[in-house]
Amino acid sequence: MVLGGILGGLISSTATTISYARRAAGAASAYNLAVAVILIASAVSYFRVIIEVSVIANSNIGTLLPPLIVALVWVSAIAAGAFLLFRCDHEEMPPPSNPAQLKSALIFGVIYALVTLAVAAAKQRFNSSALYGVAVISGLTDMDAITLSLSRIVQGHQLEPTYAWRLILTASLSNLLFKGIAATFLGGGRLGLRLAPFFAAAFLGGVALIGLWPNSWGLNSQPPVQ
To answer: Quick check: is 176 in a domain?
Structure first.
């Protein structure tokens, strides 16, 4: 269960959600396993985001990382709770897909290019709030493209770090919502109902973090970037 969630989160938590939801649709006894693996994969996806931000925007990690780490700890605690509830279930785990396929790499390249273009267009033609729309749309199926794009912009001093991490978390909440809908549609209403309390807790925690985290709190302070 843990290994399936970790590998799935490192590859794609969205793909893992779809894979386990489809499997659960044909076996009601796999609902608990699917919920636990989906939550573990979702937690690992935050770890993946933190690594990407640390590598690309390394000069701003003092501002970017603390709230992202809090989000990781919160979702990990929720996933740990699900694991403790469902650890006695014994079901065969489906193998993860191959993350090194050329088709997947090409699709990600296209998505990343489109997200980068959308972010640049939103910054130039609209006010800053338009970036939230880009984050929501991009985060529906993938968090890596928007994370990498925003990290590069922050590193180039074109976006305030306190604004960037909120956009990244907004994308993650959009991704949670999409995964919840996909799991319900593919795995059935019973799977959706079992997953809903955990995803709701994760979602509300993210909203609270975005709204309540003080802008000045960080390991380093940098002036706002215009």
So the answer is: yes
How many whole angstroms separate alpha carbon 177 and alpha carbon 182?
A: 9
Q: Quick one: residue 97, left, alpha or beta (phi over 0 = left, psi -120 to 50 = alpha)?
A: beta
* Segment 6-18, tens digit of pLDDT: 888 888 888 888 8
Structural domain range at position 9? 2-212
SS (H, E, C) 78-127: HHHHHHHHHCCCCCCCCCCCCCCCHHHHHHHHHHHHHHHHHHHHHHHHCC
Res 222: pLDDT: 42
* Mean pLDDT in residue range 204-209: 96
Number of domains in the chain: 1
Cα 219 from Cα 105, distance rounded (Å): 35
> What is d(CA 92, CA 59) in angstroms, rounded to the nearest whole number?
44
